[in-house]
Specification:
Residues 10-256 form the ABC transporter domain. The protein is α/β, with parallel strands linked by helices and 269 residues long. It contains nine helices and ten strands. The structure holds adenosine-5'-triphosphate.
Amino acid sequence: MTIASPSPLLALDRITVRFGGLVALNEVTMAVPPGTVVGVIGPNGAGKTTLFNVICGFVRPQEGSLHWRGEQLRSHSPRELAGLGIARTLQGLGLFAGLSVLENVMAGAQRHARAKGFATIFGTRKAAHDEAALTDRAMHVLRELGVDQHAKAIPRMLPYGVQKRVALARALVAEPAMLLLDEPASGLSAAEIDELAGRIRRFTETTSVVVVEHHMDLVMRVCDHIVVLNFGELIAEGTPAEVRADPLVTEAYLGADTDTADVSGARRA
Ligand SMILES: Nc1ncnc2c1ncn2[C@@H]1O[C@H](COP(=O)(O)OP(=O)(O)OP(=O)(O)O)[C@@H](O)[C@H]1O
């Protein structure tokens, strides 16, 4: 498969974002075909988060266009993502502190239900039925991610890796056509990253995934296609093997001050 496959779910065409005089993204073009994992990588300040925010509708590009399922998104907002079939996890976990794990995940499902127009009217028999269905669905996703035993817990009392899975469950419960993951590996142990890699590959049975990630090992293992940004420019793209072999990519990472500068994809101890 190549990125030029017909009918991508999401297509970005020459997206340019400027913050004052700074060009955070310069004519970046990329596509996300159905059933694929697309990675966005690049050194610090390359424009990854800005790209993620453009897709989410947090940042409006000055130039260029986005198409979702062939239709142009002119001024979508983050609130409209669920209705489009897009779910996201953010760098911060973004879990509701006062809600249990199950309630957090149900909040994700309710956002989806509202977006689909199944408004819940509390106190009716239908509402009780909807509530039960949402609970079932939320429990099912928690079970799939191996954290259902924590359903009644308050998230902050749980290990960070478990909280990350809860945040993932909250995104997945909406049954998105596309899942946006911002640094899903950050703060996880090597064993947890292994598990996450397997899980992301399994997601492609039902959803496309866009992953913005510093952790090179994860990106190289899970992505079908990788887009490399540097100073807002798309400097390389291709399969993990192509990106790994691209001298421009190595050059961009040289001097990068993080331990993620190794683009060989070799696992670090
Ligand atoms: N709201 C903003 N206002 C001004 N400049 C911004 C804003 N957001 C990002 N930038 C700048 O745009 C450039 C790209 O930033 P961005 O956060 O997208 O990079 P990144 O690749 O996600 O970096 P990192 O890996 O460090 O998170 C940087 O120079 C950053 O300082």
